[in-house]
Amino acid sequence: MDPQLVEEIDSFARSFKDVANRFRLISKIGEGTFSSVYRAEDMEYDAFDNSWDLDRSPEGKRRLSMGDMSSPIAKRQKKVGVGPRRKKYVAIKRIYVTSSPQRILNELVLLHTLSRCDSIAPLITAFRSQDQVVAILPYYKHADYRAFYRQLPLMEFKYYMKSLVTALEHVHLHGILHRDVKPTNFLYDPEKRRGVLVDFGLAERESVDPSYCTCRGYGENNHIRHITDRQPIGGYLKNDPRPGRRANRAGTRGFRAPEVLLKCLNQTTKIDMWSAGVILLSFMSKRFPFFNSADDIDAMIEIASIFGKPKISACARLHGSIFDTNIPTVPDRGFKLEEIVDWAVTGTDVDETEASTRSQVDEDPEKDLAFDFLMKCLEVDFRKRISAQEALQHEFLARI
Ligand code: ADP
Ligand code: MG
């Protein structure tokens, strides 16, 4: 093991006696924006499979947890032909002390709330030592998305999507927005065809009384008023006196839904479905990351380059903003997602005039279903975007 890592693990164990007493730290498995995650063995877990049923006395348990092979229970295990227990591994998430206590509490509470779904990593327990908090989760064997997204056939990737959407359905039914759906937060094991959603560090409850955004009262009669409220007549104001809008933009660049980029104050669980769509788009196009903008304005341009200016302008209007650009590559007519994927996979330019006929060449019904599903996830108007519950009924996921 890397000596620097040995030192890091040692110092962690020294400063966190409770954790060191119970868990044997093995390796570092992740370093996210907000935490370091270690793989460890839970030493308090019983020493043999089924041993909970064989001996529940504290003495027996203590002996077993030390792995005493000569214990009466071990002998009995041997006699009945039960092999030594499989070791139990956990993931220790050491949340950086720079995170606010409120944020840490929020993550732990939401993890605890959502513990009852197979597609979500449950919180086993948590420890605090001064300003340091660690969360203990079961360890999930998983593959790096980058290692399989180019190889996996579409039929297999369906399992990925189904598992992800199942997790999201559970999260959303609890009125919670994950806010950071992306491959590194969805631990997928292609062999088991199973994934678990992790990292509720940015998650939040859907507001029951959201702040006002024009999208809430957007109807035939009143939308003009809201638009003109924010629309400077005859161009842009030089020294715009209106305060900038502040909204929760938490998430990862490239995965943010248009309404997040437009600083909508009424964000819903649908933002996660957009991110799930971005993952599917990345899979279909064999490009990761698919969107690669440096900031929110660039991100809007990227999205507009696919869906076209009119559609994004309408989306901006929905949220009381104006979208305008003179960048020539932003088309008036949007592209079909099939065309974008085609272009990404083959590298050939999408010609606007032939574009409408090209996608008709593909006749794989499974692919058609995937594109229909993708289009419904990447619907720029969140009100029309598919929900997790509806997504599970969509033929693409329902027929596995
Ligand atoms: P952060 O908030 O810092 O992004 P995450 O919860 O996303 O932290 O964890 C960072 C990384 O650690 C993940 O991308 C994953 O590789 C690994 N990881 C997290 N939880 C687990 C787990 N329960 N089992 C296995 N690996 C995990
Ligand atoms: Mg993460």
Largest sheet: 5 strands, antiparallel
Mean pLDDT score, rounded?
84
The set of bound ligands, ions and cofactors reads: adenosine-5'-diphosphate, magnesium ion
Question: How many H/I helices?
Answer: 18
Oligomeric description of these chains: single chain
Low-confidence stretches: 47-77, 220-230
Question: What order do the strands of the largest sheet run in, or round the barrel if closed?
Answer: 1-2-3-5-4
Using the alpha-carbon principal axes, give the shape: globular
Q: Count the strands?
A: 9
* Pattern of helices and strands: HHEEHHHEHEEHHEEEEHHHHHHHHHH
How much helicity do the residues have? 40-55%
Kindly describe this structure.
The chain has 400 residues and is of the alpha+beta class. It has helices at residues 3-15, 17-22, 51-54, 58-65, 72-79, 101-113, 145-148, 154-173, 223-230, 258-261, 270-285, 296-307, 309-318, 337-346, 352-358, 365-377, 388-393, 395-398; strands at residues 23-31, 35-42, 89-95, 125-129, 132-138, 176-177, 186-189, 194-197, 204-205. It is 42% helix and 12% strand. The strands form three sheets. Strands 1-2-3-5-4 form a five-stranded antiparallel sheet. A two-stranded antiparallel ribbon has the order 6-9. A two-stranded antiparallel sheet has the order 7-8. The protein is globular, with a radius of gyration of 25 Å. The chain binds adenosine-5'-diphosphate and magnesium ion. Residues 29-30, 32-35, 37, 91, 93, 121, 137-140, 184-185, 187, 198-199, 201 line the site of adenosine-5'-diphosphate.
